[in-house]
Amino acid sequence: MTKQDERRPMIEAIGLSKFYGPFAAAREVSFKVREGELVAFLGPNGAGKSTTMKMLTGYIAPSEGEARIAGYNMMDDRIEGSRHLGYLPESGPLYMEMTPTGMLDFFAEARGLTGAKKRDRIDAVVDICDLSSVMYKPIAKLSKGFKQRVGMSQALLHDPDVLILDEPTAGLDPNQIRGVRRTMRRLAETKTILLSTHILQEVEAMANRVVVINEGRLVYEGDVDGLRTIGKGDLDEAFHSLTGVEASKPDA
């Protein structure tokens, strides 16, 4: 057994399916993210990434299967599982009329943080997300990059073991993406992360492993080198091979 195999599974998708009438947004998706890993979650638009992430967080119920965070079933023990989880959806929960300091204070109290512990956690996430220069500006007036950082900061307030991040760099310019990557590397030193992205350079720069989904089904789970081999050294080609039109044909 390898050292990696001995790590505790912190995110577990066990046969997850989500049906909307005859349409399957996800079908029998199974994978694990072990303690200390940063795993990239890839797939084209409409592949089922966000649906799978919402099932993993307990935000929506699976039609079939089971989602576990830190060992907790997210349907039966969602509150306990949520104590270990920080979730940043693609459109994060921001109150545009608030300032970052006001919003973080609000979320901290909602999570039961008070006194010195609340102050310490707010100071910590402001440092991690590099927000000190905008703490008293209305969120509505911040750049998209800073808005993403504010969203990230609220997901980190309770110091979770696990982070599930849905497209945290979507719509950002290259400098903003660089800042988010820097934050991701810092977080990956102490947390388990599942990161949804369309940017293959982020996979090479940060990920330990890769999970690829297409049309609601898992089509690859493994390391970056294995994915590169599929594309004969080219990650773009590998992604196309697994998720392009040819891959979707029944006889492909």
Please name the defining characteristics of this protein:
252 residues; alpha/beta; Rossmann fold; four-stranded antiparallel sheet; 11 helices; 10 strands; 39% helix
Show the helix and strand layout.
Elements lengths: L2 H4 L2 E12 L2 E12 L3 E5 L6 H9 L6 E6 L2 E2 L4 H6 L1 E4 L11 H11 L4 H14 L15 H13 L5 E5 L7 H15 L3 E5 L3 H7 L2 E6 L2 E7 H7 L4 H9 L1 H4 L4
Parallel strand pairs: 3-8, 3-9, 6-7, 7-8
Antiparallel strand pairs: 1-2, 1-4, 4-5, 9-10
Keywords: ATP-binding, Hydrolase, Nucleotide-binding, Transport
Protein name: Putative ABC transporter ATP-binding protein YxlF
InterPro entries: AAA+_ATPase (IPR003593), ABC_transporter-like_ATP-bd (IPR003439), P-loop_NTPase (IPR027417)
Structure report:
- The protein is of the alpha/beta class and 252 residues long.
- The protein folds into two domains: 1-84 and 163-252, Rossmann fold; 92-159, no CATH class.
- It has helices spanning 3-6, 49-57, 78-83, 100-110, 115-128, 144-156, 174-188, 200-206, 224-230, 235-243, 245-248; strands spanning 9-20, 23-34, 38-42, 64-69, 72-73, 85-88, 162-166, 192-196, 209-214, 217-223.
- Strands 6-7-8-3-9-10 form a six-stranded mixed sheet, with helices on both faces. The protein has a four-stranded antiparallel sheet with strand order 2-1-4-5.
- Helix 9 (224-230) packs across helix 10.
- The radius of gyration is 18 Å and the shape is globular.
- Keywords: ATP-binding, Hydrolase, Nucleotide-binding, Transport.
- GO terms for molecular function: ATP binding; ATP hydrolysis activity.
- Residues 11-240 form the ABC transporter domain.
- InterPro entries: AAA+_ATPase (IPR003593), ABC_transporter-like_ATP-bd (IPR003439), P-loop_NTPase (IPR027417).
